[in-house]
Design brief:
TIM Barrel; Lyase, Ornithine Decarboxylase, Chain A, domain 1; about 30% helix; globular; about 425 residues; 2 domains; 9-stranded mixed sheet; alpha/beta
């Protein structure tokens, strides 16, 4: 698995992403700015794909991690399918021309309107729909019958396994909102096994995110394997596939990611008899391929305490405010040997006390306006969770490939933010 520094280097004291100086990117595209490395994206995918060499494993990139169309097209070229959690993400997959057979539709709140749109396509425009509740399956079965459109489904199993990750990103415990219990799955498998419009294709799990130990996976795999046997007895036939979810953790600070070869061996141990196994990585493929570039607006120094105020805010990178997440921060110029790193509180300009990226972080910057800082490991849940709070337009996105860079999303304007707002005749008369 690649490191956060995989494509970073200093050339003539200037920080470069691949072979492009960050200062050059700021000059051309402005600041703040999300930058992605094609090499890092490709290397991340190939490392995971190669770990599964010889196994019938299909990688379905978790689009929620970063849904930019250009990045989706890069994953498509590499052979990835996609894991989708909304009709909007399905629409992006359609625009990116990811084959329908390689799409799985997850998400805990699929609506009637979404299903109605999808059922205009054969098989609902996906390889399979992952069912999260009994009511959802009842709704889909009724709509599939109405549209005379047979749909393949997988039942999402909540194995009640604590992945020992952050509480806010755990998804496989009994108290979490995701999936069905074993009892619910066996009941609906019996109830719908003869339904002509529903094809029970598989079972799926997803126990959490940023997992750095193999033991939670093994516990969940063992439970899933047992349940597969019970469901197959109910159906009277083998399941077509299992989906093992994602959650593979990366290095943000001192974490030691799981060994991909050992992870692949664990999958083989439990599911080698299946003709198809899906996995849904997101963070592990894109996080260390993305960077948030920002510049200093101003600073405050009071004794030994410094506050570095950036043009990026929590609306651009929510993870520190939302989870207390750590991101390495590099300066745009290589510190000289005699430069002393001062501890800085690194903050943005949002009018919230939680707009804090780092507390007392040693950085070799003077605190002067225009100095560049770069947040590492920002490719996952960075731009995709960004917003326009405080009426701040979302930033531009750029893809770097060797010495070249290309704009893959324009910087929003204030007019963009207000384009859909209306003034009614009632208000005009006041």
């Amino acid at each position: 698995m690649i490191s956060p520094q995989h494509v970073l280097s200093f050339k003539s004291q200037a920080l470069c992403i691949e072979k492009v100086p960050v200062a050059q990117l700021v000059k051309r595209y402005g600041s703040p700015l999300y930058v992605y490395s094609k090499k890092a994206l490709t290397d991340s995918y190939q490392a995971l794909n190669q770990a599964f060499a010889g196994q019938n494993v299909q990688i379905c990139y978790a689009v929620k991690a970063n849904s930019n169309l250009s990045l989706l097209r890069e994953f498509r070229k590499l052979g990835a399918g996609c894991d989708l959690v909304s009709y909007g993400e399905w629409f992006r997959a359609e625009k990116a021309k990811i084959p329908e057979r390689l799409r799985v539709l997850s998400g805990v709140a699929k609506t009637k309107d979404e299903f109605e749109k999808l059922l205009q396509r054969p098989g609902a425009g996906v390889g399979s729909v992952h069912i999260e509740s009994v009511m959802e399956l009842e709704l889909l079965a009724a709509l599939a019958k109405s549209h005379k459109n047979k749909v393949s489904v997988a039942l999402r199993f909540n194995p009640d396994v604590d992945a020992k990750t952050l509480d806010k990103i755990s998804t496989g415990r009994k108290k979490d909102k995701f999936g069905l219990t074993e009892e619910e799955i066996l009941t609906v498998a019996q109830r719908f096994s003869k339904n002509p419009w529903i094809n029970f294709a598989g079972l799926s799990i997803h126990i959490g995110s940023q997992i750095t130990k193999l033991s939670p996976y093994e516990k969940a795999f063992k439970l899933l394997k047992s349940l597969c046997s019970k469901v197959e007895m109910v159906l009277g036939r083998p399941l077509e596939y299992v989906d093992l979810g994602g959650g593979i953790g990366i290095q943000y600070q001192h974490e030691v990611p799981i060994d991909l070869i050992k992870y692949a061996a664990l999958v083989k141990k439990y599911f080698s008899n299946y003709s198809k196994v899906l996995i849904e990585p997101g963070r592990s493929l894109i996080a260390n391929a993305g960077f948030l570039v920002s510049t200093v607006v101003c600073s405050k120094v009071r004794g030994e305490h410094g506050t570095l105020i950036l043009d990026a805010g929590m609306n651009d990178l929510m993870r520190p405010a939302l989870y207390g997440a750590f991101h390495q921060i590099w300066t745009g110029k290589k510190p000289r040997q005699l430069t002393v790193a001062r501890p800085w509180d690194v903050v943005g300009g949002i009018c919230e006390s939680t707009d804090l990226f780092a507390r007392a972080r040693p950085l070799s910057v003077a605190g002067k306006a225009g100095e560049i800082v770069v947040f590492l490991s920002a490719g996952a849940y960075g731009f995709s969770m960004s917003n326009s709070y405080n009426t701040r337009p979302r930033v531009a996105e750029v893809l770097v490939d060797g010495k070249e860079s290309v704009l893959i999303r324009k910087r929003e304007t204030l007019d963009d933010l207000m384009e859909h707002e209306l003034t009614s005749n009632f208000l005009k008369s006041r």
